[in-house]
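Reagents: none. Just compute today. Beta sliding clamp.
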Amino acid sequence: MQVSVLQEHLAKGLDTIARAVANRPSIPILSNVLIATEDGRLKLCATNLELAITARLGAQVDANGETTVPARLLTDLVKSLPSQQIDLRLEGNKLKLHCNGSHWELPTTRASDFPNIPELPERPSAVVPADVLSKLIDQVVFSAAKEDNRPVLMGVLTRFEGPRASMIAADGYRMAMRRAELNAPVNEALTLLIPATSLSEVARIIRSEDGDVHIAVMSGRNQAIFHHKNVDIVSQLIDGKFPEVEQLIPKQAATSTRLDLPDFLAVCKRAEIFARDANGITRFKISTSGEVLVSAQASSGGGGSERLPAEVTGKDIDIAFNVRYLIEVLSVLETKRFVLETNNANAPGVVRPVTEDGEIDPSFVYLVMPMSVR
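Predicted 3D structure written out:
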C-alpha cells in the first residue's frame, strides 16, 4: 500500500471515527484503526463492536493495500504534523509515514483480523435530510438513561413511517418526544431501538451538514447503518420493548405558564449553582398574578431566589423539579418562548415550545417528574 493524503484530511477522518475506537478492548485489534484503499480513496474504520464508523478520504493511491495500526498512536502523530502532504507506505509489518522531513514507523496488525464492517445496501429503508435528523436526535437523546439498569431506556425509540419520523427517549425521570415531517415518504416503515450513544455520534457527524442521510437495517445482524456523504455509522440495535411512555403525558393542565425561554434558562442556570449539591431540587412558585418565583438552597448553606414575569392561566402552584432536567431541555429548544404545564405538586410537568405566532408547537413534548420538598 502506498498513499498520499493531506494532513488536514487525514486528521479530520481520524477525528470522525475516533469515538468508535474501543478504550479497553478485550480484543486488542479493536484499539486499532483499519486503513485501506478503496476505489481510489483512503478508507478509515474503527469499531468497538457496538458502534462502527467508516470515513472515506480523497487521496492519491499509488498502490492498493490494507492494514491496521494503533488508533491513538496514529491520531496523535497526525495531529502533530504540519499541514502538508503525508505519504503512507506499508512495508512488511510497518506502516511508514513521511511528512515534510518527518519519518516515522508504526506497528501494524493484519487487516484480516479486523471485524467485518457492513456497508449500505443499494436500496436504503429511509432517506432523511441531515438537518432534520440531527435536530430529532439533539432534542431527545439527552433524556435517555445513562445507566444500564434497564437497557431499553439507554436507547431511543425511532420510527420512520410514511412521510413522518419520530424519536422518544426516557430515563424514568423525564421523557422527550420529537416528531418531524420528511421531504418524501420512506421506502419502508421502520421501528428501531437505537443506543443513545450511537445516535449522539450520528448527530455529531452530520450536525451543520447538508445533504441526506440514508438509513437501512442490516437483516439478520440486528444493526442499523447511517450513510452520509463519505461516512458510514453502523450501530447495534437494542433488543427489548420500549415502555409506552406516551400515555404518561397529561391530557389537561390545571396551570399553564408561558415564559421567555432565554431569561428563564439563565435563572435556572443560576439556581443550579446552589441546587447541584442538593440533588438539583429547585422550587417554582407559580402565581396567577403573573410571575414565577424560582428558588434554590444549597445543602451546605446559601441560596436565593429570582422572580420572572409570566403569562399564567389556571391556578397557583408550588412545585419542585430537578433544575438540570429543565436546563437540558431548554438548551435544545429553538423558540424564544415556551409553556410549562402543571397540575399539582406530585404530577409531572410538561414543557412545550411556543412558536413566533404564539401557538404551541405540537411536534415536541417533554415530560419531567416533580421532586418532593420537605
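The mean pLDDT is 95.
Action item: order primers for follow-up constructs.
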